[in-house]
Specification:
Radius of gyration: 53 Å
Structural class: alpha+beta
Shape: extended
Number of helices: 69
Strand content: 5-15%
Number of strands: 40
Length: about 2000
Amino acid sequence: MWIPTEHEKYGVVLATFRGTVQHGLPLEIGDTVQLLEKCEGWYRGFVHKNPNAKGIFPCTYIHLKNAHIKNKGQFETVIPTEDSVITEMTTTLRDWGAMWKRLYVKNEGDLFHRLWHVMNEILDLRRQVLVGHLTNDRMKDVKQHITARLDWGNEQLSLDLVPRREFSMVDPDEISVTELFKLMEHRHRKKETPVPASTHHLFVHMKSLMSSNLGEELEVFFHIYDGRENKPLSERFFVRLNKNGVPKSPEKTERQCTLFVDLGSSDLRKDVYIVVHIMRIGRMGAGEKKNLCSIQYRRPFGCAVVSIADLLTADSKDDHLLKVYACTTESEWYQIHENIIRKVNSRYNLSGSNTGLAVSLQLLHGDIEQLRREYMVLFTRGVSITKKLGFSDIIMPGEMRNDLYVTLEKGEFEKGGKSVARNVEITVYVLDIEGQVMKSYVAAGSGEPGGDEYHSFVLYHNNSPRWAEQIKLPIPVDMFRGAHVRFEFRHCSTKDKGEKKLFGYSFVHLMQEDGRTLPDGTHELIIHKCEENANLQDSSRYLKLPFSKANLPGNNQAVKGTKESFWITSFLCSTKLTQNGDMLDLLKWRAHPEKINDSLSKLKEIDGSEIVKFLQDTLDTLFGILDESSQRYGLKVFDCLVHIINLLQDSKFQHFKPVMDTYIESHFAGALSYRDLIKVLKWYVDRIVDAEHQDHIQQVLKATEYIFKYIIQSRRLFALATGGQSEEEFRCCIHELFMSIRFFLSQENKITSPVTQTQAVFLRTFPAVYGELLKIFTVREVAGFVRETLGSLPATAHAECPLEAVKLHCIAKTVESQLYTNPESRCILLPVVLRLLQAHMQEQRDLVMCARILTSMLSLIRKDDSVTTEPVVSEEVDLIVDSLLVVLMRTILEITNRPQPAGTNMRLQFQDITGEFVACLLALLRQMSDKHYQQLLQTFTSKDDLRDFLLQIFTVFRILIRPEMFPKDWTVMRLVTNNVIITTVLYLSDALRKNFLNEKFDYKVWDSYFYLSVIFINQPCLQLESFSPSKRKRVLEKYGDMRVMMGCEIFSMWQNLGEHKLNFIPAMIGPFLEVTLVPQPDLRNVMIPIFHDMMDWEQRRSGNFKQVEAKLIDKLDSLMSEGKGDETYRELFNSILLKKIERETWRESGISLIATVTRLMERLLDYRDCMKLGEVDGKKIGCTVSLLNFYKTELNKEEMYIRYIHKLYELHLKAQNYTEASYTLLLYDELLEWSDRPLREFLNYPMQSEWQRKEYLHLTIVQNFDRGKCWENGIILCRELADQYESYYDYRNLSKMRMMEASLYDKIMDQQRLEPEFFRVGFYGKKFPFFLRNKEFVCRGHDYERLEAFQQRMLNEFPHAIAMQHVNQPDQTIYQAEAQYLQIYAVSPIPESQDVLQRDGVPDNIKSFYKVNHIWRFRYDRPFHKGTKDKENEFKSLWVERTTLTLVQSLPGISRWFEVEKRELVEVSPLENAIEVIENKNLQLRTLIAQCQSRQMQNINPLTMCLNGVIDAAVNGGLARYQEAFFVKDYIVNHPEDGEKIGRLRELMFEQAHILEYGLAVHEKFVPQDMRPLHKKLVDQFHVMKSSLGIQEFPAYVRASPVHFTNGSPRSSCRNSVPNIISPDGARVVARRSPLTYPAVNRYSSSSLSSQASNEVSNITGQSESSDEVFNMQPSPSTSSLSSNHSASPNVTSSAPSSARGSPQLQDKHKHSRENSCLSSRERPVSAIYPNPLDPAQRATPHQIGDTTLPRSDPNLSAPDKVRTTFSSRSLDSVKEVNNTQFSDTVGKLLCPPVPPRPPYSGSSAKTMRSQSPLPTSRSPQKSSLPPFTPSPTECQSAGLVSNSPVLSGSYSSGISSMSRCSVSEASGTEATTGDHPAHQGHTMPNSVSSGSDELIRRENKTPPPYSVYERSNPRRPVPLPHSLSIPPSVDPPALPPKPHQLRTSSMKLVPTSDPRRADGVPHVPRPRPLPRKVSQL
């Protein structure tokens, strides 16, 4: 039986439990669980990280922990009773664990490893804390270490800042908001701006000396040297090196490492240096040979210098190699470092090129104790301390030091009977009072222990040596008296014996008889002669002699006049000894009472360091004098006391204040002193008003604090001694003193008055007195003193008066004092404080201090449950609210609206006071109860006041919610802020409802309320979904979900509005929509119904809800692009609103709106998901296209449409889809006109005219077409721009544009273009995005991309997709599957521009463009057998299933893929298939033969292979199989309808034989010698083939030469109408392209590329067929026997399209007319060849697509197709019937070059591009009266271009209504043309349908805009253009293209023909262009 647990409530999982039992709860090791019930060894409960999942688990898996239970029962909360630091560690490490793993995934290795180390360190420390064996101090250190590590990790991981007090986390509810703010700010400051250390230390590690000439031991001395003052700053650090240049004691690190301590900030400058002196220990001369002398001397070796400033910039752990310099002359050694610093190069040189001193130098910052903690290893390993000369900047009490530094400066010696100067060495000894040598008290420097003696270095032969060697004498204080230092002088002989001979000595006493020490400074000592060491053994003999020349009596001239002298400099650094006689006199006042007056007067002149040394003794002296002679010396003693007190205010001595405090508490014994002190103090205060000089009085008042301390302590001592006598007298004195103070404070003076300054001085020190007064007086008495004193201040003061700031400072100190913390005194002081504070805040003065005061006041007020304090707190809150609430809010508003100051420090201070005022406001609001709010609202007498208050507080709350209000990691503070805000809003919403509804409705207040509520809900810090589970749980437990609370409040307030809701429609739609997008289900359920309410009220008002719809759609895009919203929201929005509107009368329109918004959400969500991916892929582009179309067609949101155009454009540029980028930008270009209408700044476009923007777009598009090698499209835009430039006579740009156009033509002819593959892709299954789901697309592949590569790319884009292995249409199970299926296969394009592809002489470079551009339809052939398969002849039953796919847009376009709009399936019979196969092969043969003749092929192999394939297949039964299958009697009888087709097949077979014969003749001419045998074999096999076909002679129609090869150039053929006889020998004069180059459009099957691979490779490498031939040479599945290939497998995925089949046969009488009608490209008119995209209904069916120049009897052809075919191949007679006018037009049409088209200009490229695609036309010889013409060299274009010239036609048409817009039919695809020739001026034809009606149809159907250059519509919508966009060019835009229109004279006119995609095929009529405007009209 399950029993609820009583005490077993909380546990930790010890081992992982999988939860495999019934109701089992899976557990992971380390999880914390809450236990609910227990039963026989099992617990039931839940894991804290997922409280909703409850289950059972074994008891043995759980370690129980003690816990505290809150709210016992169903909703109990269990908190473990453990140290708060442990709890924090546990939760923090859990959070870090998850994030730590993510760091590894993100590849942030550095942070990953650092965090790992810190986590391990925290775990170790946690174990130490849990064990509980630590001492209190150690526990404190460990906790400090833990919290520092936790804070570091939180900061690194961007987690929240944790407010702490003494290492424990602080509960925000248990402290006031102001305290919380202070804690957060303190931790933030500590983290961000570490306080710069005032103390610095230099770590030096001596490593080695590198030199080539070592061999002797060395001594290295380091010290810090001030280059500005030319004196050392520190004592020396001494290191001994062995003969190898490394330290002698490597194991003793303290002998090679030191810390130069106590450097001040002023010492870290450029002219402070580390100086290194190096001495060698050895022979006198470095190069001397070894002699018998064993005596060694200290001799100079070298010096090195480095500036401390270099260490500030270098890496902290850098090793330095210092250059070592030597003196040029030894006498300069004493100043070598100065010469190096000053760079006096003549006095030193490098001691060796490879000599260097290796040292490690590092600057450390902070006090020495801090360093001991941070660099523990350094101190435990051992480091010597090198002290500064003198005291540090701050002297600490208790510091013991007694160091005497002696510097051996110089000496003057006589020769002493020598011929040369002496080698002098000094030996230094310290002797005590008894004359004994003191052991170990002579130190050369730190690092080495002190010795008994010191030997100076020796300068060779120098009687005036200068050493400048410093030694340290650390003599104890008690041994100083009577001690002296002796200096012995010896001459060091360099002879064999090398003896050191004594010749003199000097000495100096360390202390004078009166107790003063040797004064600091330089001393000239007397050198006493002495040659025997024995004479010095008794010091008493020489101590009586004079030692210094300065101290000699005047009569001792003999010694004074001696030349020999020795100079030393001494410096004492002692905390116990003094050199000051005045100080000693004062301390010995009892011995010399007559000197008391002088001593007291001289005290002020004594150095402060001397006074603090003897602070206690000095104070005892002063109070001793006061007690004994108060009348006589009272005033002077008081002044001395003031001097000492003020001395301790100095920063250098401020640490001695505790020493004085200790003295007062423990040592002060002046029980009677208080009377004298009060009396003198009052005397000074009374004199303030009248005194002229206030300086001394101000000094007295500065010392008020300590004077009161002495007064109070003295009185306490007196009371203690006398049992409290004279109490009344004392109180009376104090009252009188305060009356004097109040009197002088109440004086009103000028700002500059000295009295005012004295008042300020007193107010600064006054608060420090409170604590002392409380020792004797009651709290109320002291509070009364303070109130009256502060109240006596003058009330009215000037704002600039310095006293005002001091007043506030005094108030601040008062509020922070112990006095104010007591509730009793607070009641007395609060009114005074509030009055002063209110005055300052109202005038916005001293806000920093105001914030500080207010913070302190509110920190003391807490809600307390105790009955006694509750009324007091409530009363205080009342007072503060009354005085300061409104002022406080106004202050916050003014501060936040003020511009921030420029300086960093000012800005920080500015932010601080804002935060402090905000914290104060929050603290005050949190303290307010319902009663306070009621009282507050009652104080507003009028509605206007209440309205202003509400507006003000709502505005302040909006400011508090701003992200920048607090640092980003202050989540705790933000949550507290939000909790206060929502509580206050709930109180104030009642006031809003009561006072501002119905007839009193106020829109502004309600709007402010709603606006605040919305931004409250949307705050990032309230989005709990983004928090970790533990953090979310903590927030929910403490505050709940405040968004839901606010959402319910919004809904409630909205319902109260009634008819006033209309005021907020549509303004609040966007904000409320933003609220509903927050991913909180409860909030969404509350808020979404408001939209139904809005729709209902809008319907009542307007009869529709267009406004609601428009606003919803506008906001959805921007909000969802920011990442808001999800699929759940879409479903919820749909379901809630549909349910709501079920019973509404406007239900239908409502459903429509909801459906539209839902569909938009689908697309926006897809778009957002796609954009999250990294690289640009098809999915992103496809999604953008889908969204762009939706905005255009369904929503008609033009501005959004333009934005997405540019987003798509950027995607294409990023993916280097330059062609698609151009088409995309064209969409925007088409919306603009050539007008001067100004456009505003939009996206990246500047403010400019519409003309300028369109020009810029044109140039950008041309540039991208150029990069995408789509030069033909670029040419059209160049022409359009050129027309514009010409119309404005901008010939400079016109010229550039013509040059650009010319360069594009050159690129067409010169550069190679690869033909892309096309692939059909089907996306099946529900897991695909909406815009792809269950749709099929055709995609244009990348360069060189084949099926396998494309398939892999698609699978990479959709990694979860399954590739389907068949090409059949999937069934419904696949469509509905919860998966992704991809079906991919290659398809063949069906080109539209057949006339270009079939025209003679058009280069392959040009044709290749039309084969793969502007493609609407694609084909896929699948062979199959119908009926029984004949194994001997498979062609009898081989059918082809032909699938034709029609796209919604042509490729290429704005995307690399477009959706399939229509799918048609046709079965091709075996006979039709055979006809197609032979047609294709014939065309291929023709192409290859023509290329071979024109010498385009570098070798003949492709022709050889093709001939071999056809002839060999035919011999082996290829054509014979067709004969067997279709020419037998059975087939003819059974298929009478195929008679014409059988005849066609026979013709093609004979034609193939004829082509082969001719091909063999050409082959024989060019075949190389080594391939002759193969050629002979081919000829033999060809004869066998002919005989097998039964061909002896070709029929007449074949003999008339089916293979035409034109002799001569096209130009000559034009001039000569007599056809040339064709023979293989005529190949030398053949045209560049012969009629054999008719293309047979074909594609390879990507699934069976075996035989075609070589052809593809040859296409790419240029060795075989040109690109169009590769296009043409795909063997259809039925060509196997003809091309020696096996039959294709059933899943062949590509085949030749049916649109370009067959041989262009003409009747005999036309045979040569085609060649004669060929002109060179310069002489041909432009043909309009581009298709006009029509509606699907108007498009030609796949049956109609074919070779329209070919007579074919396809039963599937419809009547119109046959008409077209007949027209295409009409006879010569039909041409004769045309009148002259029509004939000249026809000639113009016949002579037009195939590419690039020069469209008749109509003002917009949209028009020109839709009007170009003529019907294929017949060709006829030039039999007319038109004479052959030769263009003159001056003509730029042929006559056929006349129709394009606006100059000729007399009009520049802009295509814009304001500039005589032409009305041109979109449907017809024609453009009106006219000319000057008289024969045509009257020639008119009926107009086509007007463009206006077509535009109307497009608008009605909401069809998407045209995407192709060739689909651009001309008509301009009347709606105003949205402000549109501009992409900054990735490169500089090309030079402005030209705008030329040169005069072209000819009577030939281009007759535009109809669009081949039109079903009717009716040609349209030219219309006259309008006349040109004058320049003045432009």
